[in-house]
Amino acid sequence: AQTVTQSQPEMSVQEAETVTLSCTYDTSESDYYLFWYKQPPSRQMILVIRQEAYKQQNATENRFSVNFQKAAKSFSLKISDSQLGDAAMYFCAYLNTGGFKTIFGAGTRLFVKA
Amino acid sequence: DVKVTQSSRYLVKRTGEKVFLECVQDMDHENMFWYRQDPGLGLRLIYFSYDVKMKEKGDIPEGYSVSREKKERFSLILESASTNQTSMYLCASSPRTASSYEQYFGPGTRLTVT
Asked: What whole-number distance in Å separates Cα of residue A97 and Cα of residue A33?
């Protein structure tokens, strides 16, 4: 069975600085998707970034980028120029291509200091 | 924009009561999901549905049932609420198309069973 591990329950970053959230996963599949979702306080969870396993190039979305290491089964999220609005719970997630069941990590709560 | 709504943001019920949580999406998505979110455990899948009247058990279906009579609506039922079902419940939907796999979440229902 697939698992997703986020080893950092909490992280903090100074406004305008860069922070990296860690995620590792375990799977025997070769074709899958990885996601980072953001859940702001009292607001709906939204997708931040998505990575297809067959793509070697790391995904980027504005200030958000990932470091996808397929062999190491690692999928970290880097947030550059952190803003107060980045404060949220971040979930790493895994989905087999063609599957229905997304596996979520335990989450990392990010605090942003002004 | 995709919109997923849940019938209540906060709900307080007594042990033994039957509880209905409703979820409605307006994007004609085939797939719908119910998760519970607990601190340190991330999101755990209770049930999902890939079509009207179709349902599949997730990881923690015990004590829950679901109903999907219409494509846009997916209900979670707690037949006899217990205190260990106190949690945040999140509904999500996703299209079946292979280009996405992104899940769209509702705002959540925080259920307290006393």
From this structure: 6
